[in-house]
Amino acid sequence: AETVGTATEPVTGTVPVAEEEEEEDDNDDLAGRFLQLEREQSALLQALPPFGEPVSHVYHPLDYAWEPHCDFVRRYCRTPKRVLFLGMNPGPFGMAQTGVPFGEVWHVREWLRVVGGVKKPPSEHPKRPVLGLTCRRAEVS
């Protein structure tokens, strides 16, 4: 049975790592290669110096929302496509909740049928809680 992802305990690591067995299979296909590239880029991004004031919280959805992100990539990144992302604003009620680029929660859950657990980020802004795929607020951007 499919389960809807909910937010759970905070993530403590920085870059998600798939189980060895799963990772071997993934690297043989397009989605697996894409996910590996994302892991590498995420590690480079997190190695940058932290932002200073006035930035108090930075979310890394590819860490805490890795499960639904992987589900999205494995479902929709099966064949080569010509895609260009021009700047991505994940929004507090979009990718920040789902791990899916431009992924407003209702559409990710109901239309795309993405599933997976979402953990809490290590530092969560009190006005922008991560509720995962159970979030009822919509992204307006």
TrEMBL record:
Region entry Disordered, spans: 1-28
GO terms, molecular function: DNA binding; oxidized pyrimidine nucleobase lesion DNA N-glycosylase activity; single-strand selective uracil DNA N-glycosylase activity
One GO biological process term: base-excision repair
Bias (Acidic residues) ranges: 18-28
Bias-annotated ranges (Low complexity): 1-17
Keywords associated with the record: DNA damage, DNA repair, DNA-binding, Hydrolase
Stored InterPro entries: SMUG1, Uracil-DNA_glycosylase-like_sf
SUPFAM superfamilies xrefs: Uracil-DNA glycosylase-like
Top-rank taxon: Eukaryota
Protein name as annotated: SMUG1 glycosylase
Species whose genome carries this gene: Haliaeetus albicilla
Gene assigned in the entry: Smug1
